[in-house]
Amino acid sequence: MPSWRKSHLLALIAFCAASLLAAGVTLRAQVTGTKDCTGLPYGTAGCPLLEDEDEEEEIDPPLHCGDNFLQEKEGEECDNGYVHNGRSNCTDDCRLLYCGDGEISPQIGELCEPEATFVYAKDSKGEYLLLPEYETPECGRICTAPTCVVVKDAVECTGGCKPMFLPACPVEGAGGGSSLKGAAPSSSSGSQTSSGGGASAAPSICGNGKVDPGEQCDDGNTSDRDGCTNACKLPFCGDGIVHAGEDCDDGNRTDRDGCTNACTLPGCGDGIVHGGEQCDDGNSNEQDGCTNACKIPMCGDGILRIGEECDDGNGNDRDACTNICKLPVCGDGIMHNGEECDDGNRNDRDGCTNACRSPACGDAILQTGEECDDGNDADEDACTSLCRQPRCGDGFVQRGEECDDANADTRDGCNVCRRTICGDGITQYWESCDDGNRSDQDSCTNRCTLTSCGDGIVQAGEECDDGNLDDADECSTLCKIPGCGNGVVERGEDCDSGRENNDAAPNACRSDCRAARCGDNVVDRGEECDGGDACGIDCKRMSAATVVTTNGDASGAVPVAAAAMGTTGIGSVLVWLFFRHRIRAFFARRRHVVSIDDIPLDEIEMPWRHW
Question: What radius of gyration, in Å, describes the C-alpha atoms of the chain?
């Protein structure tokens, strides 16, 4: 039970009509001396009085009173939350209600408050406290007193504050005794005495129909349930007799058994806390400190109270009302429908965002491991869809980049995020070479191909290059200008051995690019002779009779023949003319002599032709 507090005793002093403050508060000595005041009534001369005795002290409630957490260091004795404080056993200023505080508090089962006086007592430090001493009447209706003791430096009280019915107090001036209803009257020594000439008073007889001294009533019958009991007492609750208007009467003053002290059957709402009940405030207000089911109000009882956002009366924390009677929200630490997570904090960079979503690249929240997060999936801005700062080689073509293939291969068409071109000095897979210059005269052309005859570019060592493989045009396939002696057999040439052309070597190509032949004055393969008087026109050796001595001209053969035949004069001339004609015709056939009209014009113009 709680200690006595100054604020509580102010109410108790008013109840007791005494000018006292709370016990549990150290007294201020008013006089000096060594007088021991222990056990003496408060205010005894020479004993200390409380400070500020004549002023009512206002005490502010503790700073955190009402937050549902007990803060003993701040002076709280209880804290049931701002909804229940003042409606239960805890006051609005976080003080416990108890028997003896001067206020009747039905919510804690009080039905009355006893009257008290105060005496001096000492705590463990030897300082004075006020200890209550309650009146203990011996008859009539009384209020039971709590038991109060000093514990260390405070007074603690338990029990009490229940009505009790003792035997009726005697009426002042009433005398005589009483007897049971219907009993025979009694006398002393069988005689009556008189005084002053008068007869002695008749003994009272319960049941004689007359209210004798000592009787409260006498109806002269034996019915115990009417207006007068068989003991000539007025009926009352607690006399053990069930009278009209009573549900029960067990004759005791125990309020928590099967019959209350009001002679009613116990039930929720009667203001008495019976077995199985947590509280009973005797009203039907569901919004106060005790429900109509006699339960201490709490979240989850299905009753919506001030301070609760909802109360569905179940233990499901993931439905429309949490187990702390709050509407579900992201951040309450409970994962509800539609939430991926809920860690109950406002840290956006841990394992759960403030939107109750699992962290992910693109949620616009910079998480651990991310370089950036702009909340979109665009790869061309300042943050890629992988939450990385853009850089050459990341596979995304950013502003200022021509390409980005995310590799270090310089020969695949993209190098340092620039498209490779012929002339950049990097040989690509489709290039034969790349010397990084714009010169077509070196070993690599401006098309990044190795130089060669037929590429259309006249290189060192080439006379020409027309870019084709046609030997019949103005540039041969060896890139030489057409002409006998260039080593290329061209139109109108039998052969061309270049520098090897020779007019004296057997079987060689002649300097006019004609093949070795009979009549070229060189004995070639298959010839017996070529030229001379003894060589025939077929390059065969002739007999002496047919030797011609004039280099193939038969004009000189006639005199020889004529001389051989011994003829002279006209006959000799005729013979000479005959043979001359026949010989010329023969050689014309052998040499295939052609007319100039039969030779093509383009060949006539060729400088190397010797006609």
Answer: 73
Contact by Cβ (8 Å): 199, 174: no
Query: By C-alpha distance, which of 347, 365, 297 is closest to 83?
Result: 297
The structure tokens listed for 84 are: 């229940």
Are the C-beta atoms of residues 378 and 399 closer than 8 Å to each other? no
- Give the model confidence (pLDDT) of 508-562 as tens digits: 999 999 999 999 999 999 999 998 888 988 999 987 655 544 444 444 444 444 4
310: confidence class by pLDDT, cuts 50, 70, 90: very high
DSSP structure class, residue 591: T
| Virtual torsion, Cα 99, 101, 102, 106, nearest 10 deg | -50
Question: Could you give the angle at the alpha carbon of 219 between the alpha carbons of 213 and 223, nearest 5°?
Answer: 125
Q: What are the structural domain ranges in the chain? A: 1-168, 548-611
Instruction: Give CA separation, 499 vs 42, 240, 485, in Å.
Output: 153, 160, 6
- Residue that has been written with the tokens 């109509």 in this structure: 292
As a whole number of angstroms, the distance between CA 534 and CA 525 comes to 18
Q: What is the pTM of this model?
A: 0.30
Q: Rounded distance, CA 409 to CA 298, Å?
A: 72
CB proximity list for 420: less than 8 A, separation 6 or greater: 410, 411, 413, 414, 426, 428
* SS3 call for 579: helix
